[in-house]
UniProtKB/TrEMBL annotation:
Stored NCBIfam families: PRK06190.1 (NF004840)
UniProt cross-references to InterPro entries, sorted A to Z: ClpP/crotonase-like_dom_sf, Enoyl-CoA_hydra/iso
GO molecular function, one term: enoyl-CoA hydratase activity
Protein name from the UniProt record: Enoyl-CoA hydratase
Organism listed in the record: Williamsia marianensis
Pfam families for this protein: ECH_1 (PF00378)
Domain of life: Bacteria
Lyase is among the record's keywords: yes
Enzyme class label: lyase
Assigned EC number: 4.2.1.17
């Protein structure tokens, strides 16, 4: 039996649009989706004809984070950590633009933060619910979120688990632009096309300089978070109990924000 296409890939000019394709689960990161996304990102990053990677989610959601149902079945032990798509995004030499439509939550929020910058629709929502689930972040969230919006606002998001809307994300500097949902894809493609006007070798050097600035600022924080995550464990029963509460919390937040 062949695996379903959990990742959709489109080459549009010099842009590679990679779309998470588990809409029935709000594109939650199952192990299978994680593997397919890593492979798609690696292929795009080594393709000479691809100048920009666009990362999106199908079905009106970017990514709801780790698949909590799958995680609840096996529990969480940080020492079992394997290669993950968040690290793969952050390590891409090719510019990665996140197109955020709908919720980007916890692990999905980490995936968005690993992109070079974000374009959001007016329906975008962001939240860090790690503390509600009972798992210490391990994908660089505490480092990258504090870098982008400041440590006080980052503490607020992680401490409360509350969602922020697209307008707040724009005001806080989390996203670069907010557009209508129907225009998100075309806006992303337009930005990707604008990248092709640059000299590839020069852009690569400029991108490395920006990567170096970010690395200097957050590398130790990312490593420290990963070490704490490795030492953390959560039992399957506790995860199962928290899953329902977290999902209902998200539904309530999104209902009231409309």
């Amino acid at each position: 039996m062949t695996s379903p296409d959990l990742v959709l890939i489109e080459q549009i000019g010099a842009g590679r649009l990679i779309t998470l394709n588990r809409p029935e689960a709000r594109n939650a990161l199952s192990q299978a989706l994680n593997r397919q996304l890593i492979d798609a990102l690696a292929a795009a990053d080594t393709d000479a004809d691809t100048s920009v990677i666009l990362l999106a989610g199908a079905g009106g959601a970017f990514c709801a984070g780790m698949d909590l149902k799958e995680l609840a079945e096996r529990g969480f032990t940080g020492t079992e950590k394997t290669e993950n798509c968040i690290d793969r995004v952050s390590n891409c030499r090719t510019p990665v633009i996140g197109l955020i439509d709908g919720p980007a939550v916890t692990g999905g929020f980490e995936l968005a933060l690993a992109c070079d910058f974000l374009i959001a629709s007016q329906r975008a929502r962001f939240a860090d619910t790690h503390a509600r689930v009972g798992i210490v972040p391990g994908g660089g969230l505490t480092a990258r979120l504090a870098e982008v919006i400041g440590v006080r606002r980052a503490r607020q998001m992680s401490g409360t688990g509350q969602y922020i809307d697209a307008a707040t994300a724009l005001r806080w500097g989390l996203v670069n632009e907010v557009v209508e949902s129907a225009a998100l894809r075309e806006r992303g493609l337009a930005i990707a096309e604008a990248f092709t006007a640059t000299d590839p070798a020069t852009l690569a050097e400029v991108w490395q300089l920006y990567d170096a600035i970010s690395h200097d600022q957050i590398a130790h924080a990312v490593d420290r978070e990963a070490e704490i995550n490795k030492a953390w464990s959560a039992q399957a029963a506790a995860l199962a109990d928290s899953t329902t509460a977290v999902l209902e919390h998200g539904r309530a937040q999104n209902r009231t924000s409309r």
